[in-house]
Amino acid sequence: MNTQQGSDLFSAIVGAPFGAIGIRTEHERVRELVYLPLGYQEKAPQDALAERAAQQVARYFDDPDFRFDLPLVETGTVFQRRVWDTINAIPRGGVRTYGQIAKLLESAPRAVGQACGANWFPLVIPCHRVTASAGLGGFASSDDENGFQLGVKRWLLRHEGALALDMPWQQQSIFP
User: Fold this and answer.
1) Which of 5, 59, 70, 125 has the lowest CB atom count within 10 Å?
2) Is 127 one of the annotated active-site residues of the chain?
3) Among 53, 87, 116, 127, which one carries the catalytic annotation?
């Protein structure tokens, strides 16, 4: 997909330290936020909600303590929403493992990971704060250790002040 075709999908594209964030709005709600690699040009917001979302994304990049307040399309299964609510309770700079969340929800780590991968609203629902018990884990349905998505996860954790010593596996550095 070239940059022009991709930009047609989004109501706004906001520059990010790792690339960009595509924002899709629909019927006065945010439909989706998408991490985009380098090469996507910023796109001016096409409606008032896209403007609001773009401003909030920019504020998060300036201040990792910023709290999003956006109307989101209701999506996901009951279980996925329970996982996302649990993830929303993880404080900035903190991490939890898939297993820790699974134990809280009386579920399985793999199911928690699948719910994280189904998150339509990264940043707003901070799935980057969830890791594997023995490493970084996957992110945005990707587990390519040197890939774009895990690079984004590393950047977000650094931005929020999550130090390697705070990680469950403490001896392994997730930040190359």
Assistant:
1) 5
2) yes
3) 127
